Amino acid sequence: MANQLIYPKILLPIVLIIGGVLGAYALEQAKKPPERRTVQPRPPLVQTIVLQPETVRYEVRSQGRIEPRLSAALIAQVSGTVVETHPNFYVGGDFQKGQVLLKLDDRDYKLALARAEAQVAAAEQLLSRTEAEAEQARYEWNELGKRGTPTPLVLKEPQLAEARARLRGAKADLEIARLNLQRVEITAPFEGRIDQKQV
């Protein structure tokens, strides 16, 4: 009886394994290859509209202070009475580069220019006279038969140096007078807008 119990315990699993293998083989032989189908993509379920360009104005309400990125103070380099202003010379007025914004009374500066021109002419005349005197002194030194070299004082070299210095100074004053006359017009160095004015 013990043998009878052992055989079914051993044979039953072997029979089941063989049956499973045969069943799997039979299923493998019986299967059909899958059908090939092409899947059409479905369009998305959305609504579309055609865009048209249009101008839209957005209104933003806020408070604060708008300040320019760059600002400059235009100050006259010379003093005087304002005799003319540009029509846009008011707070908020626009101006372009090179426009004359203000013009000062130029009569004093024209007179200063005339005076400087006269000083240059006088300095040139003084230099010419001093050069002539120096030449005359050299001539007289040679005519009188004096020996040796004449001293700088005899040849009027200090007077010549002074006359040349006066001429240089007079020319510098003339250039300053010309610049001051040009500065009576305050021109815009760039385009912009007037933020404030103090005239």
How would you describe what is shown here?
The chain has helices at 2-30, 107-143, 157-182, and strands at residues 82-85, 94-95, 100-104, 185-187, 192-193. It has 199 residues and is mainly α. Among the domains are: 81-105 and 184-199, no CATH class; 108-182. The strands form 2 sheets. A 3-stranded antiparallel beta sheet has the order 1-3-4, with no helix packed on it. The protein has a two-stranded antiparallel sheet with strand order 2-5. Helix 2 packs antiparallel against helix 3 (157-182). The longest helix has 37 residues, at 107-143. The radius of gyration is 55 Å and the shape is elongated. The N and C termini lie far apart (134 Å). The mean pLDDT is 84.
Strand content: 5-15%
Whole-number radius of gyration? 55 Å
Work out the helix count: 3
Largest sheet: 3 strands, antiparallel
What is the overall silhouette?
elongated
The helicity comes to 40-55%
Termini Cα gap:
134 Å
Assign the structural class, choosing from mainly alpha, mainly beta, alpha/beta, alpha+beta, or little secondary structure: mainly alpha
Strand order of the largest sheet: 1-3-4
What's the β-strand tally? 5
Q: Report mean pLDDT, rounded to a whole number.
A: 84
Secondary-structure element order, N to C: HEEEHHEE
Ranges where pLDDT stays below 50 over 5 or more residues in a row are none
What is the fold's blueprint, element by element?
Elements: H1 2-30, E1 82-85, E2 94-95, E3 100-104, H2 107-143, H3 157-182, E4 185-187, E5 192-193
Antiparallel strand pairs: 1-3, 2-5, 3-4
Main traits of this protein?
199 residues; mainly alpha; two-stranded antiparallel sheet; elongated
